[in-house]
Amino acid sequence: MMTKRQLGMGRAGLGGTTRGAARVSGSGWQTSGGCRRVMRLETRAVAQGPTSTTVEVEVQCPSEEHGMKCSLQRSVKFASCEPDSYEAEECPAPLTSLTPEQLEQAYERCGLVTEYYAKTFYLGTQLMTPEKARAIWAIYVWCRRTDELVDGPHASRITPKALERWDERLEAIFAGNPYDMLDAALADTVRKFPVDIQPFRDMVDGMRMDLVKPRYDNFEELYEYCYRVAGTVGLMTTPVMGIAKDFVGDTEETYTAALSLGIANQLTNILRDVGEDTRRNRIYVPKDELEMFGITEEEVMACSLVTEEGGTDERWRRFMKFQIERARRYFKMAEEGVMKLEENARWPVLSALVLYQQILDSVESNDYDNFTQRAYVPKWKKLRSLPISYWMVVENSLKKLV
Amino acid sequence: MKRVTTSSRSGRSSSAATGDASTSSGGAAVGRCKCRCPGGLLLLRRGRLLSTTTSRRAAEGASDRFGGDGGERTPGVEGSILPGSLLDGTSLPENFSIIESSETMKDFGRMELKDMRDNIVARRNTIFLLMEEVRRLRIQLRVKEGDGDGATSAAALSEDAGAREREDEELYSSAIPFLPPVSTDTLKYYYWVYGLGVASLVIFGGLVAPAIEVRLGIGGLSYLELIESVGLPRQLAQVDPIVASFVGGAVGVLSALLVVEVNNVTEREKDKCFYCEGSGYLACGQCGGTGLVDGEACPMCGKTGKVMCTTCLCTGRLMATEHDPRIDPFV
């Protein structure tokens, strides 16, 4: 029996036909059989008549499965290592090419870069222990540099060869031969925490996708992209946050929740930046879903769905409601998993979750105008997320006691 | 930005430097660059590259003067044998890309010292020629676009230049924090505000205040009474008015100068690439910036201790723009 919340996403207008069989599914996601990660989502499509059908869309992502498998294996191996015994592959020795002072300097630079480019995120890292914060900075800087290759001011000069070079540098980092000091900080991090290389490789592949793929036909393709550019971040940071040697809990569920948070964040980004992306000739929202709501690609590119006189087009409103509902669903899944993290990691992660979800609220309050208005969360609301998330952590711990 | 107007020469571009070249046979170009630059020889060797820089010459069939497809090696002249990849028409090693790796250090490292110098000069020359061509092409483009709107080419050019001179409303960001960008028009307004402000302050302080007996303090306390009530030494109330005004003015001026300078530094800081802090390079990850690993030259950076910053591509700037000749010299 489905709750109103699961069913109720508002009515979705439909220009074309209903899709597939009408089946009602239960909760958001479940693992089934051999395929570890199958997302079940509902698309609520209303045909011309008054009856409504709820349809299931299964999304499979083999690269995500692979990424998760590698990360899990690595954390298991790391946990099984004897302290101070270093076996080449599983438990690599600490980085010796740099002196501790040089390494410290490298981490400091990572911190400065993080603070400069992502102030709110940096504030979040201040809620963690210093070792975790440094590790997160190193990962952030690598991800940001990778992103700037394809999205930064020199993006037009990036060729596939340049990305190959970047790949080689990544392999060198994990082999203990970092090219520059920022790489060295990451090389040190991956030796101290059980971070696997596969998510990093997937992220570079995701950047490649961005170079060649300006449109997404269906949600499955979009999910693949979201996994590569955001889900991977979850896989990279979870080992830092909570998979310590003495951690007792279900590792896989923690990773799954981290993936959900990444996907939710990326979907939020996409929904916030629809207008901005059209200027770079990119539409991330799936084409088939646009069609389902009777919207054409040309209308999106022309930014004609939001006008000064008419406000937001009703079709766009319904479309956005559906998209936002799905993003919120992923946030919910992530929230459930945050409570499985290590104690001192729950608050920062939950703050990030609460804060970022407010962007969706902001899009809604702009009447779904993501073409002319930029949805942003004002400072006071950001600060407000901190006590809210703190309370959520406390509440959850109390529930467990009772 | 320099606004350069050229006299309308016919479409010959960069003919001066490339000059006349005579070749003995396809492949081995043994001509002399008219400008007698030492790089001239090398320029000529780079077959296809040269022929693209002289569009007119290409039309005249000049490309075959420079020999084949440029992919052939041309050893022999002055005994300098450069790796074939450096001499071919694309003028870049095969595996060139803008992201460095430990291999790229060695690519050019194999050359002899003299060859390196010659190559640098030759490449500089080529860059200059290409930059000049871009500039002229841009002018032609503007002219053509002007044509499309119905104006004649000459008129469009001069109109363009004149319009830009008139359009002196270029906004500069303010040196003072919190103020909006300024232009020469805004500046005139500022002069007025300054003049009025100073005049009214002087009149107020010198005439109005004593006349209406403006007193500090609540309830019309005189300065001496105020000082005593607060408990400070009496000397404060006996300060000579000229000294007082001098001190006040000096403090005001110093504060203003400091504020402006701090703002200036903040603005400049924003221009810096944050990854390398404006230096354009990052410390090498293998040797930590020392250049040596186990007493020998570091394999990654080759004794330099530094490697390229991939964000700013060694420009040190956040957004490498027209200030970097590699990117966009003339607009």
UniProtKB/TrEMBL annotation, chain A:
Show the InterPro entries listed in the entry.
Answer: Isoprenoid_synthase_dom_sf, Squ/phyt_synthse, Squalene/phytoene_synthase_CS, Trans_IPPS_bact-type, Trans_IPPS_HH
The similarity annotation says: Belongs to the phytoene/squalene synthase family.
Q: What is this protein called?
A: 15-cis-phytoene synthase
Look at the named UniProt entry and state the broad enzyme category this protein falls under.
transferase
| Gene3D superfamilies per UniProt | Farnesyl Diphosphate Synthase
| EC number per UniProt | 2.5.1.32
Specify whether Transferase is a keyword of the entry. yes
One GO cellular component from the entry? plastid
Please give the superkingdom of this protein's source. Eukaryota
**One GO molecular-function entry:** geranylgeranyl diphosphate synthase activity
Supply the Pfam families for this chain. SQS_PSY
| PANTHER family attached to this UniProt entry | BIFUNCTIONAL LYCOPENE CYCLASE/PHYTOENE SYNTHASE
| Reaction(s) this enzyme catalyzes, per UniProt | 2 (2E,6E,10E)-geranylgeranyl diphosphate = 15-cis-phytoene + 2 diphosphate
Q: Which UniProt keywords apply?
A: Carotenoid biosynthesis, Transferase
Q: What are the start and end residues of every segment in region (Disordered)?
A: 1-28
Asked whether the UniProt record includes Transferase among its keywords, one would answer yes
The alphabetized list of GO BP terms reads:
carotenoid biosynthetic process
From TrEMBL, chain B:
Which UniProt key words apply to this protein?
A: Membrane, Transmembrane, Transmembrane helix
**Is-annotated flag, keyword Transcription?**
no
Which residues lie within the region annotated Disordered? 1-29, 53-75
Q: Does the keyword rRNA-binding apply?
A: no
Indicate, by first and last residue, each region the UniProt record lists as having compositional bias (Basic and acidic residues). Answer: 57-72
* Bilayer-spanning residue ranges: 189-212, 242-260
Q: Which PANTHER family match?
A: PLASTID TRANSCRIPTIONALLY ACTIVE PROTEIN (PTHR15852), PROTEIN ORANGE-LIKE, CHLOROPLASTIC (PTHR15852:SF8)
Q: What is this protein called?
A: Chloroplast protein ORANGE-GREEN
Species, as recorded: Chloropicon roscoffensis
